[in-house]
Amino acid sequence: MNLYDLFVKPYENYSAVQILLEASGTFFGILSVYFSIKKNIWVYPTGIVSTLIYVYILFNFGLLGDCMINVYYTAMSIYGWILWSKNSEDHIHVEVTWATKKERILATFLFIISLALVTLIYYYKPYIDNQFSMEGTHLGLYHLDWANWLDVLTTSIFLVGMWFMARQRIENWIFWIIGDLICIPMMIFKELGITSVQYLVFTIMAILGYLNWKKSLKEKSTIKS
User: Fold this and answer.
1) Residues 6+ apart with CB under 8 A from 217
2) Which pick of 71, 111, 187, 225 has the fewest CB atoms within 10 Å?
3) Which parts of the chain span the membrane according to its record (predicted)?
């Protein structure tokens, strides 16, 4: 696989509108991560724009299973937006802390439930992608390759990360870093070179976000003491 096959060939059959939509989704996704690093509530409006764009793209490609997962991302973003609005004194920025023991236990259960939910979506994906018709459709997980199974894993990782972010917990960045690192080779395998670079950028930004949130909490603790 050369650079042309990785970065250009997958987009040869795309229309200008499709390329513009994907570029816009990527732009708002990166912008959302930037705002999250700054603990700025605009992380959610920009994130919602990004996920809604991907909902539209995936729906039009007939990938309804992946589309439903992005709808779930959108719902989680709305949940986070509400929580940040309640916990922000200036209605823009929030304070961050480490998760409590109870929250970590809840996150474990959320991860397990997410694994089961996403696996269930993939089980019914042939039916969903066939416009909810059983004609010529066989349910099951037979159609999944190793990249699909990694997708099940990373989707669950990202959902827990979104939950921690909604609650302003520093641990969210650990989940984003792990998930983004897994996605890089997965996207290269799927011949989505531009998307793999996007996840590389996300990984670097997540590391910066983790360091920034830790620094912010340390400075707050120093001022109080």
Assistant:
1) 96, 97, 98, 170
2) 225
3) 15-35, 42-62, 68-84, 105-124, 146-166, 173-190, 196-213
